[in-house]
Amino acid sequence: MKRFAFVAALVLSCSSNGIADDSPPAKVRFVPFENINIEQIFSERIVREKNDMVCCGLIESKEGLAKFKAVYGIDVKADKVDFDKQTLLFGITNNISTRAFQLLSQPRIRLLTLDYVDSGERFRLAPLAPGKKYSHVQVFVLKKIERRINLRVKNYLPVGRMEVYN
Q1: pLDDT for residue 5
Q2: Gap between the Cα atoms of 151 and 140, Å rounded
Q3: Torsion angles phi and psi, residue 148, rounded to 5
Q4: How many domains are contained in the chain?
Q5: How far apart are CA 77 and CA 41, in angstroms?
Q6: Which H or E run includes 153?
Q7: Does residue 28 fall inside a structural domain?
Q8: Is position 127 within any domain?
Q9: Which of 8, 72, 89, 96 makes the best surface tag, with the fewest CB within 10 Å?
Q10: Is beta strand 54-59 parallel, antiparallel or unpaired with respect to 161-165?
Q11: What is the C-alpha separation between 1 and 29, in angstroms, rounded?
């Protein structure tokens, strides 16, 4: 009974907050996402380790590109990329029928979101060795990002992580 009385008193005190009922509602300012121009230069299905949780990242230099190639064993043709003015962005998804189609920016919180859509493609794939999984990787070129940002993949598990190769 004491517990009920305490909860009731807490609810009543929190609901009134000493504010008159005729006060105007708080204004919420919506800041829209901006669409950043990206150009796809690579798209391929890969096989990677089952415990690899990387879902996105940036490649900021030729050395970073070499590290990325060493990790995933894929050869991204980036001969025309000027790393002084451009950055490579990659997205890796375990849902191999989805493709990234836009990059959204939220400048106030320094967040970039790689947005995916289902392509409608369906596959019949051979079973893999234990500890392996199919994934799809896409690499995009975009204008150099000067400030540190957070990069995420929309609708991806929160355990996915971002990697920066520089």
Answers
A1: 43
A2: 14
A3: -70, 135
A4: 1
A5: 8
A6: strand 150-153
A7: no
A8: yes
A9: 8
A10: parallel
A11: 43
Q: Taking the model in full, what pTM does it have? A: 0.73
Residue 95 lies in a domain: yes
Neighbours of 139 (CB within 10 A): 25
The pLDDT value given to residue 79: 86
Dig out the tokens for 142 from the structure: 């975009």
Rounded CA gap, 87 and 142, in Å?
A: 6
The tens place of each residue's pLDDT in the chain, 166 residues long, gives 444 444 444 444 444 454 555 666 667 666 677 888 899 999 999 998 988 888 888 899 999 999 989 988 888 888 899 999 999 999 888 888 888 888 888 777 778 888 888 888 888 889 999 999 998 999 999 998 777 777 777 655 454 555 666 5
Q: In what order do the strands lie in the sheet with 161-165?
A: 39-49, 132-143, 86-93, 54-59, 161-165
Q: Write out the H or E segment, with its range, that includes residue 12.
A: helix 2-16
Q: Considering the domain boundaries, does residue 13 fall inside one?
A: no
What is the span of the domain harbouring residue 82? 33-165
Per DSSP, 89 falls in state E
- Provide the token pair at 92: 């890796």
